[in-house]
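Hi everyone, sorry if this is the wrong subforum. Our group has a chain we'd like a structural model of before ordering constructs, and none of us has done structure prediction before. Sequence below.
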Amino acid sequence: MEAAIVLSSGGLDSTTCLAIARHDGFAPLYSLSFDYGQRHRHELSAAAAIAKAMGVGEHRVIRIDLRQFGKSALTDAIDVPKDRDESRMAADIPITYVPARNTIFLSYALAWAEVLYVRDVFIGVNAVDFSGYPDCRPQFIAAFEALANVATKMTTAGAGRPFKVHAPLIHLGKAQIIRRGLELGVDYGLTLSCYDPDAQGRACGRCDSCLIRKKGFAEAGVADPTRYQASL
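Answer:
Right subforum, don't worry. Here is the predicted structure as tokens:
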């Protein structure tokens, strides 16, 4: 069996990705989360609980500070957009985009992979319900994978198969992702996708991520287990 690293945000997509890696026979599994200066830490608690529930061999949280650069509603004193329809979400790259985030996260995963001599990394990016993020596109995944294969001792010295970035959700809609996760036994009640949860970790229900998630459960025809704020 081959080991794999899974980037885990504690959200719906990354948790489904973890379940897919487990189902596909990768073992042991390592999960990697980031305390990057995001405005809330509830997603980190969710990622830890998910790692435990899904039998991950080792879960790590890497601390970096993307607040130093700002320019994102997730790391700066900028309001998170609420109550936007799909046309507004798709109109441009939203202010919730964190500059170069997935490039940074995958770079850390690559470093850990080289230490562990792991050649497979999973990331739950999605190019269908992706809110316009440029680092969730197939072109980005292909480019990073090509970079990784000329960037490390592991991939340039000696024998061994190439480094692979797996993005199994990249062409799926949210309802398809949810159905696949349920087939694999994912407990979506453990996950948190909200950009602006309250102090108790309850989802706002109004940010782009919440709206896409709610629509996904509705289209999948299954109950939404998300804890929303009392006013919803």
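For your construct planning: The mean pLDDT is 94. The domain at 4-220 is CATH 3.40.50.620 (Rossmann fold).
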